[in-house]
Amino acid sequence: MKNAICVLFLFVSIVHAHFQVIYTPQTQTSDKTLAIIFFFTHPFTVEPLLRTGLQEDGKELGMKDVFIVHREKTSHCTDLLKPAAISTPHGSGEAQKLVLDQASGYKSAGDYAVIVVPYPYWEVSEKTYIQQIAKLFVNKGGFSTNWSHRCAKGFAEIVPLVKPGEVVPGGLVRAVVFDAAGNVVPYCTVEIEIVNAEIDMAANRIAEIGKIAGEKYGTATVLTDAKGVFEYIPQTPGFWGFAAIGAGNAKTWKGKPLEQDPVLWIQVAK
Amino acid sequence: MRTNQMRYYIKINLLTIAMILFCVHKTPAHTALLFTEDNGDGTVYIEAGLSTGESVSGAKIIIKDKTTGQPISTFLLPDSGKTNIKMPDVPYIVTLDLGVGHIVTKTGPFPDMHKKTDSISKSLPVSGKKSKKMMIILLSATTIICIFVCVYMVLKKKIVK
User: Is B49 close to A109, i.e. CB distance below 8 A?
Assistant: First the structure.
């Protein structure tokens, strides 16, 4: 009986997906600076933070590239990343922080696509590398400029079909999945999870797990249709991640299987 | 029968009006937007556009003194819809004028805004006292005039009798 319960709990813990999280407290802002935090985890349970770019041999390669796309202009910001030790209820881990200001190109109003490309992560239990190319839109000053454009050219990408800053609980999230060559990806599995925690960036702390009690209200899986489009209606405010599993074109890394997933983050407003 | 028909037509008309009003309410698809930011070097960044992402080249920008309302400068935005200007020496408001229904006004960024705001807010009770005195004087004057008018009317009636 005890074994059966253990197996059940193991299964429950396995079903949570990995997500390369991009978080900032407010994605609709008029502030002069923008502070962002990046970490790799299972956002629904926020288990210990995973080591970004962990290789099979134990080396940690971290972030390959971080860039901002604003009005078709791309600014690389990898050099501005600063490591930060983050405490979580399951222990501490390392995240990356980024602060953008006028000098680093965060000046004019409009949509800023924040895109991270970490090195692939060796998932020992699946004997597979996972690489998630994640994207978050921050809007400055209310101007719509490039949220509906392809921003991560050369990579697989989820492009929203609804304005990311206007999604409310019960509102529709609709998006299309592209592969690196710009082709839509039909019948692709899209895993969805909410960041089920409070993130205190100033205190470097992730706390209060259990904001959403029921897993059914914080995680979901949908498929894209024949045109690569998927839809989902989040019922709870917060940060929702959408990962199109295996939509990327690269299938191997260092001779091992690679799962390359584009991820889109949407802040559902209160 | 006719009454029923009348009621039916009234209902249809009301429904149509409601739908028109709803549509009118839902049409701010082209909301004018104005963005200002302190560059930190004595200049201010000004950008104007529409919520749809369209630019507003040639849009009229008016800068006014926040306290007196006096115009400081008026100019047209270049094709890019954005520009940098020298920060005014006094607290100011920026107006984007794209024509009727598309006018946006906001307070411009000003480093000493808090100090100025404090000084303004401190001066408010004084002006408040002044306005109270004025109100009392006006009320007293109105009351006296009313009494005079009433007395005059009563006396006039007596004389007529």
Answer: yes
